[in-house]
Amino acid sequence: MKQSYYLTVLMLLLGIFTFSSCSDDNDGPSADVNNSIVGDWQIAQEDLNGDGAIQGIVVHEDGTVTEWMYTGVTLDPYKFGFKTGKWSVNGNHYEMQLPKGGGNYYNVTVAGNNDSLMYLAYNGKTSVIPFHRLAKLPDNGDATLRLLLSLKRENFKMSDLTGYWAYTGDDGTVYNNGFYIDAEGNVTDVETYPYGPSFIKHSIRYHTGKVMLNAYLCTIPYQGTNYELYGVNDSIMLCRQGDSQQMQRFVRQEVPQEIKRAEEIANSKVPDWLVGEWESVHYKEKNGSYISEDFDINESEWSRQFYRQLVFSSDHQLQRGGRAGLGSVEEFYVDNDVVYITASLSDLINSSIYATVESWTIVSHTNDELVLKWSYEDSYKIYTYKRKQ
What we know:
Elements: H1 15-18, E1 22-23, E2 39-43, E3 54-59, E4 64-70, E5 78-90, E6 93-101, E7 104-113, E8 117-122, E9 125-127, E10 131-134, H2 141-150, H3 158-161, E11 163-168, E12 174-181, E13 186-194, E14 200-210, E15 212-213, E16 218-222, E17 225-232, E18 236-241, E19 247-253, H4 257-267, E20 276-287, E21 290-296, E22 309-312, E23 317-322, E24 325-326, E25 330-335, E26 338-342, H5 345-349, E27 358-365, E28 369-376, E29 379-387
Antiparallel strand pairs: 1-9, 2-3, 2-10, 3-4, 4-5, 5-6, 6-7, 7-8, 8-9, 8-10, 11-12, 11-19, 12-13, 13-14, 15-16, 16-17, 17-18, 18-19, 20-21, 20-22, 20-29, 22-23, 23-24, 23-25, 25-26, 26-27, 27-28, 28-29
């Protein structure tokens, strides 16, 4: 069962006064600050408004109040206004501030209370319908509340967020889709696809965005939507989705191998000798059983200017150029004398799905010369490059 949480809940607490008969006379208990009001309370013992819901408040020891409404709906039985209210002691009685939206509150007096009942007064009128103390919240409300209490809800640090967080559906199912956050706050989107009858593989979109984190706000970009972080603990993350008050739950899971591989590639060192600009000076092609091309490249023959330049950077970026100049930025990775080239690091990891990966073997190299070979069946192309001074 999925737990849904809302900062603003239609508790209809105003209905306590609007829909119930009010009187200045109260035959119930007197106000007593020696009797603690900390605990779970339910207004009345029945559905007051005919909407199939029962509702109440939880009074916390730290001076806060949580609103709750229980509907029993299978997928979404609870709504909580977690710690949206406050309480304090004033003389011989308790007082509460209960939210009515827009940052405004109802100032409510506890006009009478004992171990089992509590009456509230608003604008001098005391409700004849009491709150009843509960041993526990209906259904699994206490477990839900314990979860909320376990969440860190302010002063977030990046270390609270790092890891892989899997999306949880409305029915409580934990999916393999989600996002990975690294120690620098980079966000990598993760999706899954079937690979055989009982195995899945992950498709990643590497570094699609970055967490925005400051003293007041934390937002996480995921699949085109900014999720505002509501609370997090070691295993669960709750976020507001976009501009709505709808909450989305993510569960911490083991980091997929594809993410580990992407991090390994991104953090690997590009050989020092490879970094810089190279110009091709010779081209050789074998097509099938015969040599089709074997010539030196020079600037005067425009037809021989393809792949004239390679510019390798230390951050795994590559630009290739011909007679039209340098092209778009690509990604590369060197492993066991093979240079792998793709449009993005995500493509390199996801090559078995849809991406194209070029593999160029390093035939030989010195500080000033580089020979690369691309092979396919019984055909190959060989480029000889000189370092541009």
